[in-house]
Amino acid sequence: MVNKLRCVVLLLALLVGCTKESGEDVKVELDALCRGIFDAEVVEYVNGRRTFNPEYLEEVTSESLRLPGEFCSVRRIDDDTLRFDISYDWAAAGDEYDPPGQRRSDANGYVYGAGDDLLIISGGLPDPSASKIRFLCQTEKSSRLRTVEGRLVEHLFALNQEATFAVLLASAEKAAEGFGCRNALDFPDAADVKGPAPTASATPEG
To answer: Sign of dihedral through CA atoms 176, 177, 178, 183?
Structure first.
């Protein structure tokens, strides 16, 4: 059985100075969450949101990264629907990596090119709130490239597009190591992600 590290993250205890004086900005430390995928810019974005209310959060993550499977899970203790979950798996048939010339943004999501062997899919049916990242991976056990798909469900931090791309790319880089990918993968900065790809007649809902 995979030991679970149930880490109750009391954000009030992570505030800078651990107290909040009148008129003082609330600062939340996030860099320790989710295997360190929240970079300084994402942390600054979350801290800069006046609507972010520091509440008790619970991170339920395996001590060791075992893929395919859960990468990271954070949720609010008093409301399980407010959560931040990332998981990785081998892509199902029909959901493989699409070459650049075949990518289209349609009801399945907006497609963004993130390099020669990476793409990000944002929104679309059946879950407009989910974002995905796909990349090609060759392991020691296979001579062919297979598609890895990461899925982010984000109902907790209200990340904007660039912050969403940043955490997806950071998690994908760690996931590639976890899957044992031997092929060279160049993970770009979130600001350099290109897209969306040419749009078909249908567009994603949400």
So the answer is: positive
3-state secondary structure of 164: helix
CA gap 107, 206 in Å, rounded? 10
Condensed to tens digits (0 to 9), the pLDDT of residues 115-154 reads: 778 999 998 877 788 999 999 999 998 888 999 999 999 9
Q: Quick: pLDDT tens for 48-60.
A: 775 555 567 788 8
Return the domain boundaries, the chain.
4-192
Residue 44, token pair as written in the block: 């600054």
> Are 110 and 123 a contacting pair, CB within 8 Å?
yes
Question: Please, what is the average pLDDT of the chain?
Answer: 78
First-to-final CA distance of the chain: 39
In DSSP notation, 119-134 reads EEEES-SS-TTEEEEE
β-strands 118-122, 110-113 pairing? antiparallel
Contact between 96 and 89 (Cβ < 8 Å): no
Write down the residue that tokens 């009801």 correspond to.
Answer: 107
Helix axes 161-179, 40-47, angle to 10 degrees: 140
Give the count of alpha carbons within 13 A of 124, CB side only. 17
